[in-house]
Amino acid sequence: MSQPLISISGLSAVSDRDAGAPILRDVSLALERGEVRGLVGESGAGKSTIAKALLGILPRTVRVTSGAITFEGRDLLRMPPKQLRNIIGSEISLIPQDPQTALNPGRRIEGQLTDGLRLKRGLSSKDARHRALKLLEEVHIRDPERVLGCYPHELSGGMRQRILIAAAFALEPKLVVADEPTTALDVTVQKQILRLIRGLQEAHGTAVIFVTHDLGVVAQICDTVTLLYAGKVIEQGRTADVLANPHHIYTRSLIAAGPRYDRPNAGLTPVPDDVFAELRREIAISDGKEARHV
């Protein structure tokens, strides 16, 4: 059996700003080549912290206390900074959450798309520009010649997000981390972006870690899912299996709390307080602490 592309083993982290409060609690998961895995949970669940740890961009106030993140057998957490920089961007890339702030407002799109192609792939300016045009066509942007000459503020939010997606796939990475890439977009554009990411992932055979708070998004795009709460893995497995036959009461409650397209007039059911009480109890037991400290 071949080794997974990414393996996260016993990853724990604390916040030094909050007197060592746990942020991640013994997180373990694996991602195969070409797999799309959703990291799902409410705010503060730890999903973005996992993504930042993988990308080597954890804030200084967050400290990893144990565990490993191995990429093709190489531990990213213990890798020299220069070697990690060579991997990030070329083998692992990011689709950021907010297209408004992720692009440099003072540079035209052409430069922002071609820098990596020239610096990391050694393409000439002419070849990099040709590749950038192809990338814009691949993400279904009309008139790519015009768009290359634009500044970010001259484009819509959906077009900016398409450019970020093109940039993420530009260097043919083995893994793309998508950090809630549809959050800042309206519902119609969200659906288009999800289809686009899935289409590119399938065309290139790229693995994707998709960070989201929305189980509906997970159902549309993810092969597997990891559900988190307060930095702890609550449930994980094949998406279809988890959604059809959830084992944990929190998973069942989240599914019940979401809107149903087959029942548009049905009301939403909030997650009951006793479910959160049970989660706090489980986490307190795993931490070896009283529930009041969670």
TrEMBL record:
Compartment(s): Cell inner membrane
Protein name (database record): ABC transporter ATP-binding protein
MF annotations from Gene Ontology: ATP binding; ATP hydrolysis activity
Keywords carried by this UniProt record: ATP-binding, Cell inner membrane, Cell membrane, Membrane, Nucleotide-binding, Translocase, Transport
Pfam families per UniProt: ABC_tran (PF00005)
CDD domains xref list: ABC_NikE_OppD_transporters
GO-annotated cellular components: plasma membrane
Lyase as UniProt keyword: no
Keyword Transport applies: yes
Gene3D superfamilies, per the entry: P-loop containing nucleotide triphosphate hydrolases (3.40.50.300)
SMART domains in UniProt: AAA
Domain ABC transporter, residue spans: 6-255
GO BP terms in the entry: transmembrane transport
Family classification: Belongs to the ABC transporter superfamily.
Phylogenetic lineage: Bacteria, Pseudomonadati, Pseudomonadota, Alphaproteobacteria, Hyphomicrobiales
Principal localisation: membrane
Membrane-protein topology: Peripheral membrane protein
InterPro entries xrefs: AAA+_ATPase, ABC_Ni/Peptide_Import, ABC_transporter-like_ATP-bd, ABC_transporter-like_CS, P-loop_NTPase
